Amino acid sequence: MRLLLQRVRLGRVSVDGETLAEIGPGVVLLVGVGPQDRPEQARYLAEKVAHLRIFEDAQGKMNLSLLETGGEALVVSQFTLYADTRKGRRPSFVEAAPPEIAENLVERFAAELNTLGVPTRQGKFAAHMLVEIHNDGPVTLWLER
Asked: Which residue among the candidates 6, 41, 55, 79 is catalytic per the annotation?
């Protein structure tokens, strides 16, 4: 699994002009799934995200986690994180998991975050989404397992 994490002041996802989910301060997580990925990766990455110290304390140092700040998470499936652009001009997505595998693991990842105490909202799997991200910092991290 691959995650692109962005610390945000606001995150919102819409489909056909209708807002599906919105969060205040927290993280937007673009989540890609490979065919070899298993529930263990979803659990590991949820733990990592919940406990990553990427929010500033009173001294302005990144010492606080999502759990410590009460931040929220917005999970958006993103198969394009597995794009292979080494050949030609059109990306290949053969490294991305098939939808039936990917959807289950994205759902599992979001559920794991929720179970850990992070209020979690989601986009709509396989939909054409408009994702609004107000990156705070900016802080953007790549996580992989």
From this structure: 79
Rounded average pLDDT over 110-133: 98
CA angle 50, 54, 59 (to 5 degrees): 130
Residue 69, in any domain of the structure: yes
pLDDT at residue 118, as a whole number: 98
For the chain, the domain total comes to 1
Does 80 qualify as catalytic in the annotation?
yes
Half-sphere exposure of residue 4: CA atoms within 13 angstroms, side-chain side = 12
Is residue 128 within 8 A of residue 75, CB to CB? The reply is no
Arithmetic mean of pLDDT, 79-103:
96
Distance between CA atoms of residues 65 and 68, nearest Å: 5
Is there a catalytic annotation at residue 79?
A: yes
The answer to whether the beta carbons of residues 108 and 37 sit under 8 Å apart is no
**pTM for this prediction:** 0.96
CATH at residue 21: 3.50.80.10
